[in-house]
Amino acid sequence: MKESRIIKLESLIDVGQKMVDNAKLSGNSEVLWKTMVGRESIKGSRDLMKTQTETAVAGYQEVDGKKLGVAAQRASNMILAAAHNPLGFVTTVAQESLKSDYDKFQSASFAGATDVDYGKNFIGAEYYSDKDLDKNLGLSWTLNVRALETQSRFAETLYPTITVDSNDVGITIRTKITTVTRGVMNALLAKDSVEDNRRPLHDALTDHRVLQDDAIRIVPYIMEDGKNAEFFVDPTIIENTTVQLGRVPAYPTNYLNFEQTQLNLFRLAAHPGIVTEGYDETDEIAPGAALGEILLSVRKKGEAIADGALFKINTRDMQYSTFQRPAEGGGRELLLNFRATVFTINGKSKDWKGNEMPALDALKANGYSLRFVISVNMSMHTTGDRSGFVDITGKSLRIDSVVTADGTKLPINEGSVKTILDNIQLELYGWRFDGTRTNENRRTQGLMLDPIWEQENYKLQYGSPLLTKSPIGQEYDDAERLDDLISAVNIRNESLAVSQTLNYTEQLREVVAAKVTAYDKSAIRGLGRHWVSAWFEELEFDVSKHIQTSDTKDALVNARQGLLNRLGDQVTRAIQESRYMPALRLLTANPDARPVVVIATDEPTASMLLLQQGETRILGDRYQYEVVTTNDDRWRVKDADYNSVTRRLQWVLRVDQENDGSYCVLNWGNHFWSPVMVTNINIQRNGGVSKELAVQPRNAHINHCPIAGVILIKGITEFVAKKLAYYVELANAPTDDTNLGPVDGSDGAGA
C-alpha cells in the first residue's frame, strides 16, 4: 500500500520515461539536442518543440489535473534533448564553467552573505563519470517538471522561475535604457566645453526639464569683454543670469534696455558656441515671437535707479504682446503694438527678490492701489537684408488711477493722492525678447535619443549535492526516493528565496541611506535601478498601541485598519518617490498599467490582520495585491526576555503580466533554473558501498528592482491572549430594585 502522492509520482515517471523513449526512437531527441544545446538552426525544430511541449502538458495534466507551467515545459524539452547525449548534457557546462572567461561574472550570492547555497564552480567527478545517466532519464524528467510545478507559492511569487539552457554557464540580464542627450562639446578651454548630462527618457514623466530644449531660442549674449554692454541693463543693478541652449556652453545674459532704440537680435545672440561666423540669410525668426518681460523701476522721487526697487512684469501671454504681421509691407516685417494694458501695484506688491518696495509705503499705509498703463511699440524683421533688426518706435507709462480697497477711484491731481503720486517714480527700465529661430537651415541640432543596453552577468553555479539511499534492486524505479529529492529541492529553493530577500534588503537599506538626491543612481545589483530610484523604509507596528476600543469584537478590526493604513501609506509613497509608475507604463507600453503589491509575511499576520472574510481589497482599488506566507523562522524573531514575537511583513512590487518565461526588471526578482540530471552513484560509507540517488541543483535567485518596505509587527498573540480575555460573572437581578453590588460576589461590608 502506497500513499497517493507516491502513486501519482510513479505515474509521472512513466509519462516521462515514455516521452524519453519516443524521442530517442523517433530521432526527436537528436534534433532537440542540436537546437537547444548545440544552438543549431534546424528547419522544423520550432514545430517539434511545440509538439513535445503539448505532449508533456497533456501527460502531466492527465496525472495531476493541472496545466504545466512555462518553466516546466522548457525543462521537459531540455531533458528530452539530454536523451541524445546524457553524459554530454552533464559534463559540457561543468567543463565550460572552469574557463577564465567567466571569472568576471558575478556570483548569485552577496559577499559575506549567510544561509546561501551558491558558489560552487565545480561538480563532483563521481557525478558525471557515472554510466547510468540514460537509465534515469524518466526520473530526471519527473524531478525537473515536478519540482518546478510544486515550488512553494512564497518562493515562486517573489522569484518567478525561468528555465535556462543547460549549457549556459552564466546568465546575462539586459535592459534598454533610452537616454536623452544634448550632445557633448570638448573645447580647448573648460569654459567653452559642455558635459554630456544625459538623462533617462522615462525621467521626463517626472521632471519636465528632461525634454525641455531651448536650443533654438534667441537669447542675447553679453560678451565677456563688454563690447555690447550698452544694449543691456546695468549688471550692478540687476545681476546677469546664465543660460544654456542645447549643447552651447552657458553664457551670461540680462534684460535689454529701452535706451537703445535700434538693435539686431541675431547679432546679440550670436554666441560662438552657436555660430562660428555669425548668422546668415538662411536664419529666420519664427512666428510667435513676443515681448516676454518688462522690468519696471519703482523708486521714490529723486532716487537713483540703483537705490530703488525693480518690479518684473511677465507679458508673454498677455493681450497684444505678440509680434504680428502688418496689413501692409513686404511680409518680412512684424509689428508689436503692446497697448492699453493696465497693471496694478500696491503695498502688498513685492520686488523681483520678494522684498517690499519702500516707494509704495504711502500706498500701503492708506490701503490704496495704483493702476498704470504701459504701451510699447516695436518693429522687427524676421529675415532678409534687415534680418534680426528691431526698432523701438515708442514706449510710455502713464498713471491711470488710484483706487481704495473697495474699488472707489480717487482724484489723482489734487489732495493727498497727488502728494503720494508725486513721491513715486515708475520707469520702464528693461525688456526681454521671447522667440526662436525656425531652424529650417538645420543649424542647430536638438535633443538626441540614445539607447544604451545595460546588462549584468551572473555565474550559474552548483549547489551542494542532494543524495538519498536507494533500496538494492530498485535503483531505476525509485519513486519514494525521488519524492525525497523533489521535497528537498523545493525546501532548499524556498530557503534560498528567503535568504536572498533578506540579504538584498540589507543591501538596499544601506544604499538608500547613502542617497543624496532623488535622482541618484544607487550602486546596488538589479537592472531596475536604471528605471527607478532605490527606495526602502522600515517601520514598527505595535498592535496594542493601535486599539481604540474596549469592545472585544472590534479590537482586531482596529488593529487591522491601523496596519493597513501604515501599509497603504508606505506603498503609495514608495511608488511615488521611486518613480515606479512612469517606468512601468513606459516599459510595458501600457498607460493603464498598475503594479501588483506582493505582501510576504507569516500566517498569524496574514490571517488575523490582513485577510478577513468578505474583504478582497487590502489596499483599495488602486493597486492589486497578493499575500504569501512562509514558516521560515527568519521571518519572525522571538524576544525571550519579553516573551514576545516580532513578525516581519515585507512588501515588494511585481508587474502584472503573463508568465511567458521572460523577465522584467521592474519585478522584485527571478529564479533561474537549469535542468539537472538524476543519477545513481556508489558512495563508500563506513567501509561499505551504498547505492544512492543523487541530484546537484544549479540555480540562482537574482534580484532586479530595488524597492521594498518592511513593517515589524509586535504583539499580535500577546494582545489576543491577554488583553482580549475578560472575566465576566453573571448574577441574578435582585427583586427589591437595589444594585447588584460588587462583581466579585462580596457583600461590600466594610466599604
Would you summarize the structure shown here?
Pfam families: PhiKZ_MCP. With 751 residues, the chain is α+β, with helices and mostly antiparallel strands.
Number of helices: 16
Radius of gyration: 39 Å
Share of residues in strands: 25-35%
Structural class: alpha+beta
Give the tally of β-strands. 26
User: What is the approximate shape?
Assistant: elongated
Ends distance: 74 Å
The helix content is: 25-40%
Q: Segments where pLDDT lies below 50 for 5+ residues? A: 726-731
Average pLDDT level: 84
Instruction: Please give the domain count.
Output: 2
Can you summarize the main beta sheet?
6 strands, mixed
Organism: Salmonella muenchen
Pfam families: PhiKZ_MCP
Protein name: Major capsid protein
InterPro entries: PhiKZ_MCP
Descriptive account of the structure:
The structure is a single chain. The chain is of the alpha+beta class. It is built from 16 helices and 26 strands. Strands 17, 18, 19, 20, 21 and 26 form a 6-stranded mixed sheet that branches. Strands 7, 10, 11, 12 and 13 form a 5-stranded antiparallel sheet that branches. Strands 6-14-8-9 form a 4-stranded antiparallel sheet. α15 links the parallel β18 and β19 (624-629). The radius of gyration is 39 Å and the shape is elongated. Residues 726-731 have low confidence and may be disordered.
Offer a few descriptive terms.
751 residues, alpha+beta, 2 domains, 6-stranded mixed β-sheet, 26 strands, 27% helix
Q: How is this fold's topology laid out?
A:
Blueprint: H1 4-26, H2 28-37, H3 45-64, H4 70-82, H5 86-96, H6 125-128, H7 137-149, H8 153-158, E1 161-163, E2 170-181, E3 199-200, E4 241-243, E5 251-253, E6 256-257, E7 262-264, H9 265-268, E8 290-300, E9 309-314, E10 333-346, H10 361-366, E11 369-381, E12 389-403, E13 409-410, H11 415-422, E14 424-434, E15 448-459, E16 466-469, H12 479-513, E17 535-542, H13 552-577, H14 580-588, E18 595-601, H15 603-610, E19 624-629, E20 636-639, E21 644-655, E22 669-674, E23 679-685, E24 688-695, E25 698-703, E26 707-714, H16 716-723
Parallel strand pairs: 1-22, 17-26, 18-19
Antiparallel strand pairs: 2-3, 2-15, 4-5, 6-14, 7-12, 8-9, 8-14, 10-11, 11-12, 12-13, 16-24, 18-21, 20-21, 21-26, 22-25, 23-24
